[in-house]
Amino acid sequence: MASAASVTSLADEVNCPICQGTLREPVTIDCGHNFCRGCLTRYCEIPGPDPEEALTCPLCKEPFRPGSFRPNWQLASVVENIERLKLVSTPGSDEEDICQEHGEKIYFFCEDDETQLCVVCREAWGHRAHTVRFLEDAAGPYREQIQKCLECLRKEREEIQRIQSRENERIQVLLGQVATKRQKVIFEFAHLSQFLEEQQSVLLAQLEKLDADILKQQDDFDVLVSEEISRFSSLISELEEKNGRPARGLLTDIRSTLIRCETRKCRKPEAVSPELGQRIRDFPQQAIPLQRKMKMFLEKLCFELDYEPADICLDPQTSHPKLLLSEDQRRAQFSYKWQNSPDNPQRFDRATCVLAHGGFTEGRHTWLVKVDLAHGGSCTVGVVSEDVARKGELRLRPEEGVWALRLAWGFVSALGSFPTRLALGEQPRQVRVSLDYEVGWVTFVNAVSQEPIYTFTASFTQKVFPFFGLWGRGSSFSVSS
Predict the structure, then answer these.
(1) What is the CA radius of gyration of the chain?
(2) Residue 120 carries which DSSP code?
(3) What is the pLDDT of residues 285-308, one digit of tens each?
(4) CB–CB of 297/188 below 8 Å?
């Protein structure tokens, strides 16, 4: 049996010079070269620049007459034998290249029907008016489209991989924070356990003292009651004896006896003195320091588990001229009177805002903002990126590097891409702002009720600053840790 390599070599010798495929219905022209009948027919139908010019061979350029085709039956037999050998030497290898209807090799692609065609299919009436190309020619534009799709998909995959990398980093940061919180919980509860043991000892000692005082007063009460019972028992016995005498004996000293009995007042002793009763009633007050200590412990624990207190001072170099800053730079008040403030690149010239000193490039920080809007107006609190617009209009939204809340008279809004009015249990007047730089959280909480207000999620890439804005006569705010 012929090897696959030799069969392939033979097949190359009987290829059509026009379609580069195996000859189909081979014909010979005047110069002796062989072509597929269909390929040569189409070649002859292609108009040249000079209609009168004779046709030339596609290979040697020798002229030939269109009607001089001579079927080459011998070559057709050779081609048929080679095709049979190819199927035997490589069984199943060309099944996908063979037309299922005609058994011919597929060379063409119909753009209109998106169908692969053999020579016979190509000459069919249904495809004559269609755009038909050789397979490789038709595949070219699709390869370009596939390449464009691949580029887009690869970019999308890279973006997803970047997101995955960023989120994995955030997860590692969160795991580190959880480990730190775990250590703080163990440490704080160890101290709390020691304190509770001490308080338990103090309270139990006080209860034991109350026990002893109650038992002592019980003993005193028992002695007093016994004495009273004894006295009354004597009087009762005397009267019973007097009552049992004859009339003469009964009347002897009867008046003095009755006066002595009637004037005898019963003392009603109390088992527990008012002072001791008050001490028992006041005992729960002894737990008030413990309650206060527990509250302080919980506040301190929650605070330490959350963020580090930030020492906030307002930066006068950034303050709008309508804001009056206190000497300690921890309070600002709105004024319609412009201050004589020199213009500089850091100062806001249209938005009545001010930034804090320093800024943050890492870590978790928190600060308290007390707002006074007694005369109306509004106050804006949050954080901004370092490159936030200082001149001209300032758009308060995350896309512009601003993550903030607006507190106005009667409502609070989260300044997202579109401002959102928030439904809160009460109007906050003290807001705790917390920043987690690595994770990308800006959190707002009502510092009095501990009610969560809103949380922004961001990806910080540069320094951020605590941000404050004021509007309205008499409006003010102060900052602290």
Answers:
(1) 52
(2) H
(3) 877 778 877 777 776 676 666 677
(4) yes
Containing H/E element for 380? strand 378-385
CA distance 102 to 200: 100
Q: How far apart are CA 174 and CA 162, in angstroms?
A: 18
The string of pLDDT tens digits covering residues 135-177 is: 888 888 889 999 999 999 999 999 999 989 888 887 887 787 7
Q: What is the per-residue pLDDT for 313?
A: 92
Q: Which of 271, 480, 282, 461 is nearest to 371 (CA)?
A: 480
DSSP 296-347: HHHHHHHHHHH-EEP---B-TTT--TTEEEPTTSSEEEE-SSPP-----TTS
Between 149 and 67, residue with greater pLDDT: 149
Short-list 15, 137, 16, CA closest to 86:
15
The encoded tokens of residue 359 equal 């800024």
C-beta atoms surrounding 181 within 10 Å: 14
Who wins on pLDDT, 147 or 270?
147
CB 31 within 8 A of CB 60: yes
The set of long-range contacts for 278-282, using a CB threshold of 8 Å and a minimum separation of 24, is 279/210, 279/213, 280/210
Cα distances (Å, whole numbers) of residue 463 to 351, 358, 393: 20, 9, 21
CB-based burial label for 196 (10 Å; 0-12, 13-18, 19+): middle
CB-side neighbour CA atoms (13 Å) of 259:
4
Predicted pLDDT at 93:
45
* pTM for the full predicted model: 0.46
- The pLDDT of residue 261 is 77
Q: How far apart, in Å, are the Cα atoms of 57 and each of 36, 39, 61?
A: 13, 12, 4
Q: Give Cα 184 distance to the centre of its chain.
A: 25
Looking at residue 449, its amino acid is: S
What is the structure's pLDDT at 232?
A: 82
Q: Is 35 in contact with 23 (CB distance < 8 Å)?
A: yes
Distance between CA atoms of residues 306 and 347, nearest Å: 32
Share of the chain above pLDDT 90, in %: 28
Q: Contact at 8 Å (CB) between 361 and 463?
A: yes
Interval 238-248 mean pLDDT: 83
Tokens of 35: 């072509």
Is residue 271 packed enough to be buried (19+ CB in 10 Å), middle (13-18) or exposed (0-12)?
Answer: middle
Contact (CB, 8 A) for 357 and 468: no
Alpha-carbon distance of 355 to 335, in angstroms, equals 17
> How many residues does the structure list for the chain?
481
CA distances from 362 to 228, 294, 309, 444, 461 (A): 82, 32, 14, 19, 10
